[in-house]
Structures are given as structure tokens and as C-alpha cells.
């Protein structure tokens, strides 16, 4: 495994390290040397390669056949999922996303997460590293009470249940979390929740047992102190999980649902963290979630490139293999360049999380959340083009990959929100050098 071309020399003075660059600076002011992966990380990487090759990819046909036979609106879990989970646990591939459980750094986890992205519908869940559960588990691990951990975190870590994160709303631009309108009104020792959410991923899965819901507890407080997060069991009276929304006409197994909350009552002990801490909790949750998404996206890009190469080598047109055509070779080369650039940014963000924490890495994570899906989509699009008509049907995985990664440019914050954050940081940063004013008078 080679998570990065940058390795530690063992000499902190020579390596530089986190003090060798300023917080949030994206320009390479002396790149820090990345630490070499641990023996355990190398072991797990090799185990993951074998697992994807021997178990996951061969299981895709069974998964696809089960889903194809399912009636519209049927979100029954294909049996192969639980079979793969059992096999992954036997191989020690479980909860690798959480450093306290796996012993891996984010940088060490990145190449393993990338491998899971080769089969995004099967591999992440097989190793219990699937969204939105990973973000919810991290949130409960970080801010949950002992009772919340016992009741919800432990069965999530065990892969016994699933969960959903209910933040996005149809009536407001939810990329701005302060817009959220769902009300959470204190009534004695309870909160009463009223509101409507949508794009609640995972809520249609029959194993989903709990929702983490964001809403307003005090509309009169400071803007970023109005929101709170509550743990809401799905069987609470007043919770109505409605239709699942298709993505580019395709219905995902776990669903992306409309959820209505009508006078839903939960105890005050359902608060995650503290009342008024919902906005901060959302940022804490979404940061790791974003970087894990882009890690997996790289795997999808690699799969698309591998398919492109195989197609070019095995398909002939106009008297010779497609691989002999300069235009095809150019597309393959451009795809490799884009994936390597995206991976470098992703790994730098992961290293910064390890070295300085989520807050220091927020601009790098934002940059990766924009750049990686764009690069991966570009590669997938080229692969679709090279596959011709087959590329836009379900004859290959490419159309599914395209739909998911196009949606990635919207979920967990749209490109525009991240670009605004990055631009704001650049516009307030002092330049490294004082530059002379441009003189226009000489031109007239």
C-alpha cells in the first residue's frame, strides 16, 4: 500500500510537520512529509484488496438480480449484504473509519476507503463503513451520552441496526444549515418536533431504527445557537417515513426519503451534546463524512478508468483497436492525471485531520469535496463515451456510478457552498509577499 509519495524520515526537524504550513493554506508552502503506514494499515489494505476481489465484486451479480426483481418501493435488504458483513468481520475488516475502533489514522484509512469505492453499494456496508451511519456513529461517539451510546452507538458499531440523518428540508435552501425550519419546542421534560424533511438517506431501510434530527429549539437565539440535534427512534408516534426519492430515475435500496414529523415527543435526554449546539454538531459530523465520501469516490474513478482501459484494449473500430487511437489514449492519460491530482488533495486533507484536527483541515476538506467528485465524474464520463450505447444503460455499472457521483456534488454541501467558503478564506488571507501595484498609466 502506498497512501502517499511523501514519507517520514523519522527526523521531525527534517520532516517539517504541521507547523510547516499555516492553517487552511492550500498552496504548497513546504509540504509536510507524511508518516509511513503502520504494519497494521498495510495488513488491512492487503486484506481489503483480497476481500473486494474474492467476495465483493463476485457478489454484485447477486445483489443486482435481487434489486431488479424487487417491486417498486420494496427496500428489502438483499441477503448477500449480511453474508458479506459476516465474511468481512472474519477478515478483521470492520469499523475501520473510526480511529478509536480501528487504530488507523485518517491517512491510513484513505486507501482502504478508496478500495471500498470500487463497489460503492456493497463494500462500504460490508465493512460497516457506510454513510450515513458512519457520520452518526462519529457524532454519538463524540457527543453522545452514555445512555445514547448504549442504546444506539453500540448496535450501530455491531452492524445490527442502521440509522439516518434528518437535516435537509424541501422548503428552504438547506445548504445553509441556519435556514432549517423544523421546530423543536420544549414542553416540560420533552421536546415536541414538527416539520418536514427530505433526502433522508437510509430511512427506507427496514433495519433503520433511529434518526438524528436537526431543528430549531430557540429561534430568538444567536443565528448559530438556534439549532439542536435530537435522537428520535423511528417508531416514535408522529414520525412518518414517506416515499423514497429516486436519483436519476434509480431507486437506491436504502432510500432517500421524505419524512414528516407531527407533534413527535421525545425526552429532553434525546439532545445530542447540548441545546443550541446543533450547528456545531453538524459541522463536526459533516467534516469527516465529506472526506470519507471523497475517499470512496476515488475508488469509483479507478474502476471507471480500468473499464475504459479494458474497453480500449478489447474493442476495435476503423481497422484497429481503440487503444491505438490517439484520442482514446489522450483520454486515458488525462484520467490518470486527474485521479492522481484528486488523490493528492484528499490525502493532504486526511493528513491535516490527523495532525491538527477537523477544524484546521476544513478548507482542505472543502476543496477535496469539490475537486474529487469533479475529477471522478470526468473519468466516468470518458468511460461512458468509450462504451458507447452500453455506457448509458444498466449493462455496465457506469450509469449508476455517474448518477451517484453527480449527486455527490450536491449532498453534504453543494460545490457552491464549499467554493464560497474557500473564496472567503482566500480573500481574507495576507499574501506571502507584498506585490507592487499594477501600473496602467503606461498603456494610455
TrEMBL record:
Q: Where is the Acyl-CoA oxidase/dehydrogenase middle domain?
A: 164-264
| Limits of the Acyl-CoA dehydrogenase/oxidase N-terminal domain | 43-160
Q: Which residues form the Acyl-CoA dehydrogenase/oxidase C-terminal domain?
A: 276-425
Which cofactors is this protein said to need?
FAD
Checking Gene3D superfamilies in the record gives: Acyl-CoA dehydrogenase/oxidase, N-terminal domain, Butyryl-CoA Dehydrogenase, subunit A, domain 2, Butyryl-CoA Dehydrogenase, subunit A, domain 3
Q: Which UniProt keywords apply?
A: FAD, Flavoprotein, Oxidoreductase
Q: Where is this region: Disordered?
A: 1-21
Is this entry keyworded Oxidoreductase? yes
Q: Which GO terms describe its molecular function?
A: acyl-CoA dehydrogenase activity; flavin adenine dinucleotide binding
Cellular component terms, GO, for this chain's entry?
cytoplasm
Keyword Hydrolase applies: no
Biological process, per Gene Ontology: fatty acid beta-oxidation using acyl-CoA dehydrogenase
Q: Where is the signal peptide?
A: none
Q: Which InterPro entries match?
A: Acyl-CoA_dehydrogenase, Acyl-CoA_Oxase/DH_mid-dom, Acyl-CoA_Oxase/DH_mid-dom_sf, AcylCo_DH-like_C, AcylCo_DH/oxidase_C, AcylCoA_DH/ox_N, AcylCoA_DH/ox_N_sf, AcylCoA_DH/oxidase_NM_dom_sf
Top-rank taxon of the source lineage equals: Bacteria
Q: How does it assemble?
A: Homodimer.
Which family does the entry's similarity section mention?
Belongs to the acyl-CoA dehydrogenase family.
Its protein name is Acyl-CoA dehydrogenase
Amino acid at each position: 500500500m502506498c497512501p502517499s509519495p511523501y514519507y517520514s524520515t523519522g527526523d521531525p526537524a527534517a520532516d517539517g510537520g504541521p507547523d510547516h504550513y499555516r492553517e487552511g493554506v492550500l498552496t504548497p508552502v513546504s509540504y509536510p512529509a507524511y508518516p509511513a503506514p503502520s504494519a497494521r494499515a498495510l495488513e488491512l489494505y492487503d486484506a481489503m484488496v483480497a476481500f473486494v476481489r474474492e467476495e465483493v465484486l463476485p457478489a454484485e451479480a447477486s445483489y443486482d438480480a435481487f434489486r431488479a426483481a424487487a417491486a417498486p418501493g420494496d427496500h428489502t435488504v438483499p441477503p448477500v449484504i449480511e453474508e458479506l458483513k459476516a465474511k468481512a468481520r472474519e477478515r478483521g475488516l470492520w469499523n475501520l473509519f473510526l480511529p478509536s475502533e480501528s487504530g488507523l489514522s485518517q491517512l491510513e484509512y484513505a486507501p482502504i476507503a478508496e478500495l471500498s469505492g470500487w463497489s460503492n453499494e456493497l463494500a462500504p456496508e460490508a465493512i460497516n463503513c457506510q454513510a450515513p451511519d458512519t457520520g452518526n456513529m462519529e457524532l454519538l461517539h463524540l457527543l453522545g451520552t452514555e445512555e445514547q451510546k448504549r442504546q444506539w452507538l453500540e448496535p450501530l458499531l455491531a452492524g445490527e441496526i442502521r440509522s439516518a440523518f434528518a437535516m435537509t428540508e424541501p422548503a428552504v435552501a438547506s445548504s445553509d444549515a441556519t435556514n432549517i425550519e423544523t421546530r423543536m419546542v420544549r414542553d416540560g421534560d420533552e421536546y415536541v418536533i414538527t416539520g418536514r424533511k427530505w433526502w433522508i438517506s437510509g430511512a427506507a431501510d427496514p433495519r433503520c431504527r433511529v434518526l438524528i434530527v436537526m431543528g430549531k429549539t430557540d429561534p430568538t437565539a444567536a443565528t448559530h445557537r438556534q439549532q439542536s440535534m435530537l435522537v428520535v427512534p423511528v417508531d416514535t408516534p408522529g414520525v412518518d417515513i414517506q416515499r423514497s426519492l429516486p436519483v436519476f430515475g434509480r431507486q437506491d435500496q436504502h432510500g432517500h426519503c421524505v419524512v414528516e414529523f407531527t407533534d413527535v415527543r421525545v425526552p429532553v435526554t434525546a439532545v445530542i451534546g447540548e441545546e443550541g449546539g446543533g450547528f456545531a454538531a453538524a459541522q463536526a459530523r459533516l467534516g469527516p463524512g465529506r472526506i470519507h465520501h471523497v475517499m470512496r469516490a476515488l475508488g469509483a474513478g479507478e474502476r471507471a478508468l480500468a473499464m475504459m482501459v479494458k474497453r480500449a484494449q478489447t474493442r476495435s473500430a476503423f481497422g484497429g483497436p481503440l487503444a491505438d487511437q490517439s484520442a482514446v489514449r489522450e483520454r486515458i492519460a488525462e484520467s490518470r492525471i486527474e485521479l492522481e491530482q484528486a488523490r493528492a488533495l484528499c490525502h493532504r486533507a486526511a493528513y491535516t485531520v490527523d495532525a491538527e484536527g477537523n477544524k484546521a483541515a476544513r478548507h482542505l476538506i472543502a476543496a477535496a469535496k469539490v475537486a474529487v467528485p469533479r475529477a471522478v465524474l470526468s473519468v466516468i464520463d470518458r468511460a461512458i463515451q468509450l462504451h458507447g450505447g452500453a455506457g448509458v444503460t444498466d449493462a455496465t455499472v457506469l450509469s449508476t456510478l455517474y448518477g451517484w457521483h453527480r449527486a455527490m456534488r450536491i449532498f453534504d454541501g453543494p460545490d457552491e457552498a464549499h467554493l464560497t467558503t474557500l473564496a472567503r478564506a482566500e480573500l481574507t488571507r495576507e499574501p506571502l509577499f507584498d506585490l507592487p501595484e499594477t501600473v496602467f498609466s503606461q498603456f494610455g
